[in-house]
Amino acid sequence: MKKLWTTFIKDVKLSYSGLYFYIEIGMAAIFLAVMLFVVPENFDKTQTYYAFIEVDEIRDEFDGRVFENDGTRVELFDDREGLEQALSKKRSAVGLHVYMEDSKPVVEFVLQGYEGPEMKQMLKQTVEGGLLAELPTYEDLTTVTVLEPGTERLSDRVSMLPPYLVINVAFMGLFVIAAYVFLDKEEGVIKAFAVTPVKVWHYLASKIMIMAVMGLVTSTLVVVSLVGFKINYLLFFGLILSFNVFGSTLGLLITSFFDSMTKAMGALFLSIFILVFAGFSYFMPSFSPVWIKFLPSYPMFFSFRELFLENGDTGFIIQNILLFLGLSAVLFAYTNLRFKKTLTV
Fold first, then answer.
1. Which three-class secondary structure string do you get for 237-249?
2. DSSP code of 170?
3. pLDDT higher than 70, residue 134
4. Do 56 and 7 share a structural domain?
5. What is the pLDDT of residues 50-65, one digit of tens each?
6. In this structure, what CATH number is given to the domain that contains residue 114?
7. Torsion sign across C-alpha atoms 180, 182, 187, 189
8. Residue 233 class from Cβ within 10 Å (0-12 exposed, 13-18 middle, 19+ buried)?
9. Beta pairing class for 66-69 and 94-101
10. Is the pLDDT of residue 185 over 60?
11. Given 18, 82, 133, 327, which residue has the most CB atoms within 10 angstroms?
């Protein structure tokens, strides 16, 4: 262990004087600044309608010039020109022009131009449903059944943390550790290492430990700043370490098949690209095919999500910590064998 610690201290001095350390710190600082000063706690999901109503009976139903109810906001205008000018300033709003034609009220939508057929149909059905609900004979027979009542929901800001953490500790670890190894090869560090009494696994473990420390520092800085101390940090550190070790070990394994960073880039980017697919299921839970659940990144995303929920599944989190530590041990053993043959190539 003394040789491992000595190797680690030497690598720390070399690595933290290089560029990659400051890239990770810079990315964490930029992400934190965006989350604190740009992204709101929750995005405003209110649908705004700008309406020019030429039918007095309908216009008289509004109390004042602005009407808000159940996530809908309607603002009235005195002419079509004013409505269109307002739409040009708020690209998410929808325009309505209501007038009489052949003694019948006509509702004309004034849209921005980016709306697809599905969006147009939804807007049409929403307005028609609202008008029908005002009829004296209307009876609401709609029932809603929730399969999982009481399901917790993260705020929009906190829901961005799991993707960042997976990228920071797993994907970045995979890429940066490969860069460190090839940098050592180019500068002759590995050839010098080959004639020392230090074993190959000491070298590999030292690199993984560096990535783990970087992941812990940057991730903790971001999470403490955004959520404070509301989560179980013991489980948080367990997730960071297990996912970081797995990503770093995978990166080392990939590098063992190549002799330069240029040749390894394709394999590294392909690996990251495949792992990113699990993010689609995180942001769109309805898209969860069986094959995507076998990607290592899938439990990573949802483990962090459970961690940030007030009543998250602790068993699921611990299970994945143990799973990735076990996978990392297997990968490390194979990677060690690979590097014994290729380290100085």
1. HHHHHHHHHHHHH
2. I
3. no
4. no
5. 888 888 777 776 666 6
6. 3.40.190
7. positive
8. middle
9. unpaired
10. yes
11. 327
Q: Which residue has the tokens 């509301």?
A: 230
**Which is more confidently placed, 230 or 13?**
230
**Listed residue (50, 43, 45) closest to 112, CA to CA:** 50
Tokens of 25: 């710190």
Can you give the length of the chain in residues? 345
Answer yes or no: is 144 within a domain.
no
**Cα 88 vs. chain centroid, distance in angstroms?**
31
* Cβ count within 10 A of residue 180: 22
Contacts of 197 (CB under 8 A, 6+ apart): 3
142 in any annotated domain = no
Q: Is residue 62 part of a domain?
A: yes
- Local structure of 233: helix, strand or coil: helix
Residue ending a domain, choose from 132, 147, 176: 132
Place of tokens 């307002």: 86
Angstrom distance (rounded) from CA 213 to CA 205: 12
Q: From CA 263, how far away is CA 18, in angstroms rounded?
A: 22
Which residue range is the domain that position 75 belongs to?
A: 47-132
Torsion of CA 241, 247, 250, 251, to 10 degrees: -120
Identify which of 163, 186, 225, 188 has the alpha carbon closest to the alpha carbon of residue 32: 225
Task: Name the most confidently modeled range: 105-114, 150-159, 246-255.
Answer: 246-255
Under 8 Å between Cβ of 71 and 98: no
User: Within this chain, do residues 161 and 245 fall inside the same structural domain, yes or no?
Assistant: yes
pLDDT of residue 150: 66
Residue 16: pLDDT above 90? no
Predicted local distance difference test score (pLDDT) of residue 221: 92
Does residue 110 belong to any structural domain of this protein? yes
| Mean predicted confidence (pLDDT) in 306-312 | 90
227 contacts: CB under 8 Å, gap ≥ 6: 158, 161, 308
pLDDT digits (tens, 9 = 90+) for 65-116: 677 766 778 888 888 888 888 888 888 888 888 888 887 878 888 888 888 8
Measured between alpha carbons, how far is 54 from 75 in angstroms, rounded to an integer? 14
Cα(265)–Cα(87) distance, integer angstroms: 46
Give the helix/strand (H/E) hosting 48.
Answer: strand 47-53
Q: Give the burial string for 132-157 (b: 16+ CB within 10 Å, else e).
A: eeeeeeeeeeeeeeeeeeeeeebbeb
